[in-house]
Amino acid sequence: MLKSFQDVLAQAKEAGRNVTIAVAAAQDRDVLQAVKAAQELGLARAILVGDAAAIRLLMTELALDPATTIVDEPDMNKVGLAAVALIRQGRAQVLMKGLLNSKDFLQAVLHGQEGLRTGRLLSHLACLEIPGEEQLMFFSDGGMNIAPTLAEKKDILLNSLLALHSIGIRCPKVALLTANELVNPKMPATVDAQVLAALNEEAAFPACILEGPIAMDVALSPEAGRHKGIASKIAGSVDLFLVPNIETGNAVTKTIIHFARAKMAGIILGATNPIVMTSRAETQEGKLYSIALACIAAGSTLKGGGEYA
Ligand code: COD
User: Fold this and answer.
1) From the CA of 264, how far away is ligand 1's center (Å)?
2) Residue 218 and residue 214: Cα distance in Å, rounded?
């Protein structure tokens, strides 16, 4: 059971995948420090795509392995696709966002002819280690899908469950996050949560204990559940929070990071290959944990189709 990012690193080292990462717009100190740490831990090699002159300067400063391959693409409009091309050519197995905007990076990933689409929905999964908490907590989707429809929420849930299963959480506890436990047609998230919970009763998803609609207080605290008269099997031990929209996921995770000094890793699921996507402001530590998470969540990557094992 993964309880911390040290466990994630240990599992990634044990998996010994030693993959190659294609880093898009690698001319960034924190990105290169994370790459250096991943190389030294034996997690991954890297191909650095971006402004070669700027990358070389940083490599010297950080004493990065001088044998590390660089692909020169200083044009920020082309750098995402140049890194994606390395994945398509089989020269790299994991894609990583460097110093470019998430939107530009994701548009390269989603490119119709030259991207990494599988026919499935792609979604972002955030993993947080929060001081004082006994387990890692996962949030989706606070990074890619802006206002998911019910069908998209199904896919986001499926992507997340496959990833959690592949990192060893066999029966994740899932909270379908809303502002209230009562179903209210004026709050569409509660209606969607009710439908998803009913689908889970029919075994539409991989193994999980899923509850919703459920508000954050009950999801976090059995005591709050008792006060509100709600019997919950997941209160206080939720693995995965499925949020109703990108603003909720983004704000919740960034708030936890700020106030609780949490650490976060972020990956994109549902593409042909695992993808590391963190905020440009994320620390080198968070970027390293994201690489490790991508390496061990690779088992959830399906080549086309929508079925799951
Ligand atoms: N999965 C699979 N295909 C997708 C997805 C997805 N999640 N999103 C769009 N597509 C496909 C569509 O079906 C269509 O074929 C094509 O891509 C273009 O769709 P649009 O027009 O909706 O795409 P864009 O380019 O306008 O938007 C896609 C983004 C992912 C760039 C957009 O949703 C976005 O900006 N998301 C938020 C990124 C962000 O700022 N995150 C916060 C910081 S971490």
Assistant:
1) 22
2) 7
Contact 52/72 with Cβ under 8 angstroms?
A: yes
Does the pLDDT at position 301 exceed 60?
A: no
Look at residue 15 in the predicted model and tell me its pLDDT.
82
The pLDDT value given to residue 282: 87
Q: Is 106 in the pocket of ligand 1 (CB under 6 A)?
A: yes
Summarize the confidence of residues 85-110 as an average pLDDT. 97
Is the pLDDT at 305 greater than 70? The verdict is: no
Give this prediction's pTM.
0.95
First CA to last CA distance, the chain: 20
**CATH architecture group of domain 6-117:** 3-Layer(aba) Sandwich (3.40)
For the chain, domain boundaries: 6-117, 118-270
Helix axes 29-40, 52-62, angle to 10 degrees: 60
CA 124 / ligand 1 centre spacing (Å): 11
Pairwise CA distance, residues 26 & 48, whole Å: 6
